[in-house]
TrEMBL record:
Protein name: PCBP3 protein
GO MF term set: RNA binding
Pfam families: KH_1
CDD domains: KH-I_PCBP3_rpt2 (cd22519)
Limits of the K Homology domain: 11-78, 94-165
InterPro entries found in the cross-reference section: KH_dom, KH_dom_type_1, KH_dom_type_1_sf
Amino acid sequence: EGKVSEGGLNVTLTIRLLMHGKVKHFLSPKGETVKKMREESGARINISEGTCPERIVTITGPTDAIFKAFSMIALKFEEDINASMTNSTVTSKPPVTLRLVVPASQCGSLIGKGGSKIKEIRESTGAQVQVAGDMLPNSTERAVTISGTPDAIIQCVKQICVVMLESPPKGATIPYRPKPASAPIIFAGGQAFTIQGQYAIPHPDLTKLHQLAMQHPPFTPLGQTTPGFPGLDATTPTSSHELTIPNDVSGPIVRVSFSSLTPLQQ
């Protein structure tokens, strides 16, 4: 259990960041950016793998190392904001924004009774802090968004760390894992294809699912039957139906609309 001493926090802690797009700062050529952050902060910094637009950046180490890592991250983002404004007509400078991923069981302590704790953090650090009302998909974690100057963000992270150490998570935590973005799906000639760049890649699993759906469709319009193709009226080219593809086949649910379908040739 963590304790707060006069010198500050003296324990090892893990903080998770949710990044969308900005992860490119860590995935610079040869990993030089994240390597420098690891060496100078002393924290362990790991980035989730995959082709998802979202990534989880996990920062682990003594709290002083975590604060140093967050300071470097916030300063890097501010540099990018300044660079983007060089030739811009925008006059107001946007704040640095980071999103933490926090177990939902700890969010109550972070908010405090009647919002007292989060109000105190906002007023004492000058940072804007928002705790998401809903949990992230397929997890028991919630996003905590922090916005402000790099100094305000690091002061805010320090106070959040104190809350997390004083109020450990209750029960098991199901961590949030970003899912890959669904590739567009088309059906042609009785086969299913996923679109990757300029290419259509055959998808045998979806083809089988499509064929099964056409043979035993769940959507039979009242009063309409077509021999060998129940539920679809081939004489009505403007009819439209939907097929829901489950998660275990294509990741996130994809809804595909069928128009002017031609019966499959057996």
